[in-house]
Every structure is written in C-alpha cells, then in structure tokens.
Amino acid sequence: MSTTTRRRATFAVAALTSALALAACESQGEPSSGSSVVGGGAVENAKVAFLMPDLASTRYELQDKPLFEAKMKELCPSCTVIYQNADSDASKQQQQANSALAQGAKVLVIDPVDSAGVASTVQAAQSQGAKVIAYDRPSTQAKADFYVSFDNEKIGNLIATSLVEQLKKTNAQGGILEINGSPTDAAAGLIKKGVHSSVDTSGFTLLAEYDTPNWQPAKAQEWTAGQITRFGSKIVGVVAANDGTGGGAIAAFKAAGTKVPPVTGNDAELAAAQRIISGDQFNTISKPIKIVAEAAAESAYSLLQGKAPESKATVFDTPAELFVPEVVTKENIKKVLFDSGIMKASQACTGAYAAGCTELGIK
C-alpha cells in the first residue's frame, strides 16, 4: 500500500470514529458543541432559582413565590425551584445566587436588591453557562438574558397623574411630597422618572422628595413626619412609589393628628386595598403578580430548552416583556380587584372595613 493510500485510510477511519462518537452522544440526549441548550439538553430535573429582594413588600412571600412555583410545576413537573429572599441585603443575595449555582441551577430569576451591584452575580452565572432573568427590577450594569416586569415608568406617571387630577378636581391649593423607592433599585428610578413627568408639569409645587432606603415603610414614615412639621397644611398630596411607603406616609399624618391628604401607592397589596376602602389611601396600581410570575416561569422554561423568550421591548439593553398596569381608586376598586377575582372580599372586608365594603358593593 502506498503512503498516500495509507494516509487516506487513516483519515477515513478517524472521520468514521468521530461520526460514531457524535451519534452516540446525540442518542443519549447530549447536544453537539454548537448547541445553546441549557443543562445539557435535558429539561427534566432541572433547577431554577427564584431570588427575591426583600420582606418589606409582602407580595414576594404571599404572591410571587407561590405563583412562580405553581407555574414552573405545571410547565416542568420534575423541575426544582430554589427559593431565597435576601431581606434587603445585596451581599446576602449574592451568596444565595452562588449557592443556587453550586446546587446546579441553570436559570436564575432574580429581583435585585441592588440593580447595579447585581452585575457580578449576572456575570458569574453566565460564565458558568446559566441564564439570568431580571424580574421586576432590571440589571443596569450587566446585561441579563431577559427582563420581565410591569412598565415601571408608566406606573409612576399613572399614580402621579391620577393624584394631580384629583387635586385639580377639588381645587386643592398647596404642594406635593414625593416619596420614591430605594436608590439602589433601578425600577424605583423608572417610577421616579414617571412621577416627575407628571408632577413637574402639574402646576403644583414639589415641596420635597425622598429616596426611601430599601423601600422601608418606617423610613418613609419618619421622613414624612419631618415634612409635616416643616410644611404643615401646605401639603395637599403625597406621591408614594408603593403601598408600603404610602402606608408609612399615612401613618405619619395620623400620628401627627392632621388630616390625611390623598396618598398614592403601587402593588395593590391587601392593606392598601383596605386603606382605599376606608378612605385613607387615594390610589394604588393593580399589576396582577400572577401575570409577571407566570411570564417569568415561562421565560425560564424557554431558556432551559435553549429558546430565547419572545421580546417585546428593550430595557437597559436587555430584551424584555413589559406589562401595562392599571390605576385603582375607590371608584373602580370593586371592578378591578374584586369582580376580577384578584382579591377576595373575605380577605379585605373584615372588622373596620366591612362597612366600607358594603358601601362600595364589595361582597
């Protein structure tokens, strides 16, 4: 056999061996080196981490967690959800993410305590082949694989515009306080931007504004108490970025023994719905958590299969799906929260709130 013939035979055997090895791998469900499928091509028994930011907002434990887990179980019965709450501690959240990755999580769904600081977590996950979904709050310094949220800038504009319209309707004379969310939360920054887009052109004076550390209601209450001492009856309205900070503001007015002006909110928490029913809170935002929690689960499942979730927007250079919220006031609370089934009368219409529910036809 000539040297050329022997060389050709060797190449043929090598090619055949490689082809057989590749076929064997594919027959066992393993993708070729060019595959983008997460977790080696097998969704079964995959692990997904659901990492929430704080306990100050009751929604994460009561709504987001069970709704996300239920949808993941429906989509992938054998998948495991690793749930952790950072309790407003960015370092703790990073540790929780590292732990989830060490346990084999292939997708991290993370609502960042610190939208900028979460960059190292995002990069660490992606360097290990895991995907990252920013949930509710975006990642600003590192690009996540996807972002799921309600339109936060729209939320800010809606709650502020609703308040301004009410103040003009009642011919209120005075100024507004603005209570923003956490300065480390980019979603709070978007809400703040939306609030200013309405307040700055409203004709009402912005008396003062405050960025609430970690969204803590107690901090919002403390700050509002100081402004009541400073401005007194000049305060005719308060734009609060969520129900927790709004509740803190309302508590400050009550503690001061002064009339509570219209106060906004956001999240449609049970306590906020009760305050609206009783007349203590002016508005909130209905953004059914079921919508975003299930969308996040569907996006996570797509990423596990190596598919890119459908993007309908871009936020901080990240493909995103944003949902449109709805303002809730005393006039439409029955229809939006109760007739829709989002909230049950048996939950809200208790004790001191029963009379208000009867007045509004909530039963």
TrEMBL record:
First-listed, main subcellular location of the protein, grouped into a coarse class: other
InterPro entries: Bact_Solute-Bind_Prot2, Peripla_BP_I, SBP_2_dom
Domain of life: Bacteria
Gene Ontology molecular-function annotations: carbohydrate binding
Stretches assigned to the Periplasmic binding protein domain: 48-307
SUPFAM superfamilies: Periplasmic binding protein-like I
Keywords: Signal
Signal peptide: 1-23
PROSITE patterns cross-referenced by the UniProt entry: PROKAR_LIPOPROTEIN
Gene Ontology CC annotation, any one: outer membrane-bounded periplasmic space
Compartments reported by the entry: Cell envelope
PANTHER family: D-XYLOSE-BINDING PERIPLASMIC PROTEIN
Protein name (Swiss-Prot/TrEMBL): Monosaccharide ABC transporter substrate-binding protein (CUT2 family)
